[in-house]
Amino acid sequence: MHQLYVLYEDATGYALFRTTEFEEIATFLPQVQDSVIDISKFRSVVFLVAFQKFETWREGLENLKCVSTGSLHKDLQLFLENNVPKSKKSTQRVMLGVQDPALATEIKDTLGLNCSSSGAVTEIIRGIRMHFRKLMKSFHDENTIMKSKLAMGHHFARVKVNLTINKVDNMITHGLNVVDQLKRDVNTLALRVRRLYDCHFPELFKLVPDPQQYIMCVKVIKDRKNMPENIEELLQCVLKDENKVENILKNAQKSMGMEIAVEDMDNIINIVEQILSLMKQQNTQTDYVKSKMHLIAPSLGNLMGEMAGARLINQAGSLTHLSKLPASTVQILGAKKSLFRALKSKEASSKFSSISKSSLIGQDGRITKGRMSRFLANKCSLAARSDCFSVDPSGIHGEQLKIEVENRVKFYVRKNPEKKHKKGRKKSKKVKIPMEIER
């Protein structure tokens, strides 16, 4: 025969219940499932053995923190030692039902009790949670139980969330995600406009490859055969290049594109208006991210630029996480996929991280990107720590770090390390080793 004890953790304290004896837990499960909904049937299956109430909310918070992490608190250990009987081989086998498998493993290793967290245990705990107030004879006021649960929930949430009121860096993360999403939407719609307008004026994209200028030109030109009289001035305001304007007007007269209907042109103009609205929202959101970076992480913004610094914070998760990362991890932020691909194929790692794309490193061939990436990652880590742990962060530290980075770039350009490396390399002489002839 088996005797099952069930541990139930509540905001008010620990409760230990005992079930009726059974031979196999597989045969006991249908009996529990039939009695969970009806309290009268459930009372015939589950009985209260002991209850230990938390004296203060601090005591309850410490116990619940241990339960959530799967560790055994001293109060829970004493409660189980005093109330759970040890199983005897000759009579019945005692088993303890625990909801959390990690806590069940810890109890088994510490106290040597046989623990289970599946099967009938899950259904019994569900029934206890449903009828807990009725099973507890000492609790008659339901409002008291709800208030204690609500208070404990608030305290436990503060510990788990750890909100910082002064530095809301998650606004930077969400703002940057909005900017990226708007950019993708603009590119998608701009591609659709190009495919639609290419049927009417296919030469325009070769003359104006920039997507934003292309959209503005489509809005100004519309039907190339019925262009407004001041079209040259309008195109000059958009492109600010007289040669491009002349080429557009010449190609518009002899274009190989087909004629377009008024309804089709109205449809294209409507999409263009949506794209321009999204571009305006993107610019507004970009300014918002820059302003938040100036308030929360001014040193990192002065060193890397507001948008590049915001991207580092987004990839790290938060400013606090970024400040705790070593410089070697900061160096590979944004290039984890390509890094693991290079490690798997045993090839040279590609320079696609956010640090390598920085304008401080540049595209000059005389600068070794690996060296500058390590140096810049080190300075970014220092700037993030300065912003995160300063009482009143200012951008002075970031400006000083940027001067150091610019001086290092000038040093590499002046010394030209690649040529120096090639000159300093010496070819090893091949030494012929005489072979011994066996006699």
TrEMBL record:
Keywords: Nucleus, Ribosome biogenesis
A GO cellular-component term linked to this record: box C/D methylation guide snoRNP complex
Keyword flag Nucleus: yes
One GO MF term attached to the UniProt entry: snoRNA binding
SUPFAM superfamilies xrefs: Nop domain
Disordered, as annotated region: 415-439
Location in or out of the cell: Nucleus, Nucleolus
Coarse class of the protein's main subcellular location: nucleus
Matches recorded under SMART domains: NOSIC
Domain Nop span(s) in chain numbering: 296-414
Biased composition (Basic residues): 415-432
Protein name: Nucleolar protein 56
Organism: Parasteatoda tepidariorum
